[in-house]
């Protein structure tokens, strides 16, 4: 899983919520407009459960969750979880655009995978080029996910939301060497 997912502060899930919102704005502008602008939807809050549990609380059965986890572990880079979230957004686009209230959208996100065929989802998320022009080619999207995670982690550290563990370790080593 990506860095910080199961740390004390669980910043990994928050960062992935920001990355997801960024990519939703870029890849699904109509959905983003509907959710964020018209309904005041908070992507980071509404997708926290997806990322924190690896979709365990939103899949209709354990087998579906295990299918996604298998691919996540095979790929070993943590980016597949973001691809699954983006594929879900694409699959559910029509339902999302019908929402008239934020609560309706939040309910849809909490139950989104209950309406999705797991074979279709895994196939769509795993393709190098997902649904034609909907996604960039696989490696380019994966590189962007990595860059965006780094970008938003740095922004959160700069904003004082949490201390970068790597910087903290360097300070400890400098103090040790000074003694």
TrEMBL record:
Pfam families: RabGAP-TBC. One of its GO terms (molecular function) is small GTPase binding. Residues 1-76 form the Rab-GAP TBC domain. It comes from the Eukaryota. This is Rab-GAP TBC domain-containing protein. It comes from Triparma verrucosa.
């Amino acid at each position: 899983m990506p860095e910080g997912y199961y740390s004390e502060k669980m910043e990994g899930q928050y960062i992935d919520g920001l990355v997801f919102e960024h990519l939703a704005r870029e890849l699904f502008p109509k959905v983003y407009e509907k959710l964020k602008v018209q309904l005041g939807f908070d992507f980071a809050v509404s997708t926290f459960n997806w990322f924190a549990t690896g979709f365990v609380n939103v899949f209709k059965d354990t087998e579906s969750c295990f299918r996604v986890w298998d691919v996540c572990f095979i790929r070993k880079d943590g980016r597949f979880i973001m691809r699954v979230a983006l594929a879900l957004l694409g699959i559910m686009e029509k339902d999302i655009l019908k929402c008239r209230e934020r609560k309706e959208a939040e309910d849809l996100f909490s139950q989104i995978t209950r309406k999705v065929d797991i074979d279709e989802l895994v196939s769509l998320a795993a393709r190098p080029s997902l649904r034609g022009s909907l996604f960039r080619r696989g490696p380019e999207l994966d590189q962007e996910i990595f860059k965006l995670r780094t970008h938003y982690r740095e922004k959160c550290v700069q904003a004082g939301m949490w201390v970068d563990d790597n910087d903290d370790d360097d300070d400890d080593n400098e103090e040790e060497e000074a003694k």
